[in-house]
Write a structure and sequence with these properties.
about 140 residues, mainly alpha, about 0% strand, rod-shaped
Length: about 140
């Protein structure tokens, strides 16, 4: 691969990473919206949504981690690319502009953030279920 192809691959992996995060946020919004607009308490439904969300979150985190590692390996290749030959000046010029804005991300930080968001999402899902159950018990239509 030449330097331009490495730069292109880096930004393609960055776009893929952003897409995984976007899908993740949309799914969280959908789950919380679904939970908010349900009227009756249904623990089985909440359990099913929790299990499906946990499976999605696990696979999403794996995809994010894998893409992040790919991007970091490409960044290493970019930084190690020799600035020699006919395009040496172009490589130096692009390197001076782009490399300072191409940070190395901390995979463990990404994992901790993802897991924290997962726990908050599941917590919110079950808190809404608990509130629905509490409201149903306090309702004058509730027959014991």
């Amino acid at each position: 691969m030449n330097y331009a192809e490495l730069i292109q691959a880096y930004f393609e992996r960055s776009v893929a990473l952003q897409n995984y995060w976007t899908v993740y946020i949309v799914v969280i919004g959908g789950i919380l919206g679904f939970s908010t607009f349900r009227q009756r308490p249904e623990a089985v439904t909440t359990l099913l949504v929790t299990v499906l969300y946990a499976m999605f979150a696990y696979k999403n985190l794996g995809a994010i981690d894998h893409t992040l590692v790919e991007r970091q390996q490409i960044l290493s290749a970019i930084r190690e690319y020799p600035a020699t030959g006919s395009n040496a000046e172009d490589v130096r010029r692009v390197r001076a502009v782009l490399e300072p804005i191409m940070p190395l991300a901390d995979p463990s930080g990404v994992t901790y953030f993802h897991v924290a968001c997962d726990l908050l999402t599941v917590g919110a899902l079950w808190a809404k279920e608990w509130l629905r159950g509490k409201r149903a018990q306090e309702s004058p239509l509730h027959v014991t």
